[in-house]
């Protein structure tokens, strides 16, 4: 079927997502990238973002996935994302993500007060990931 793409997301825990789609929206380090069938082949680094996958069965059937960075490869209607972690909207524990957000905010304040720049950066990344999970999990 020429009007669809296969979307696969792989993490160190294995294959996290494998479905057919007719549209995918991701956020690369250079900005948003909308992908439709027969898109030119590319490889690009991804930001922490909420990925949108419009499934082929119905235009209103959209999967939202919290992707924490990684790499996207588009080749011949196969989209492969390799990421440290990725969670579908239905699999996100929002209360756990809220606790991670609070913990990251506290860690940022403590690290800034003690001028520990590396720890500030790590905590900011943790905060960004928690916020991403909250946004996706609340859809």
UniProtKB/TrEMBL annotation:
Homology family: Belongs to the ATPase epsilon chain family.
Function comment: Produces ATP from ADP in the presence of a proton gradient across the membrane.
Keyword set includes Hydrolase: yes
Organism: Streptococcus ferus
Coiled coil, from the record: 92-130
InterPro entries xref list: ATP_synth_F1_dsu/esu (IPR001469), ATP_synth_F1_dsu/esu_N (IPR020546), ATP_synth_F1_esu_C (IPR020547), ATPsynth_dsu/esu_N (IPR036771)
Keywords: ATP synthesis, Cell membrane, CF(1), Coiled coil, Hydrogen ion transport, Hydrolase, Ion transport, Membrane, Transport
Gene3D superfamilies: ATP synthase delta/epsilon subunit, C-terminal domain, F0F1 ATP synthase delta/epsilon subunit, N-terminal
One Gene Ontology CC term in the entry: endomembrane system
Topological type in the membrane: Peripheral membrane protein
Subunit structure as annotated in this protein's UniProt entry: F-type ATPases have 2 components, CF(1) - the catalytic core - and CF(0) - the membrane proton channel. CF(1) has five subunits: alpha(3), beta(3), gamma(1), delta(1), epsilon(1). CF(0) has three main subunits: a, b and c.
Name assigned to this protein: ATP synthase epsilon chain
Cell compartment(s), UniProt: Cell membrane; Endomembrane system
Top-level taxon of the source organism: Bacteria
Residues in ATP synthase F1 complex delta/epsilon subunit N-terminal domain copies: 5-86
Pfam families linked to this entry: ATP-synt_DE, ATP-synt_DE_N
GO function terms (MF aspect): ATP binding; hydrolase activity; proton-transporting ATP synthase activity, rotational mechanism
Record-linked CDD domains: F1-ATPase_delta (cd12152)
Domain spans labelled ATP synthase epsilon subunit C-terminal: 91-136
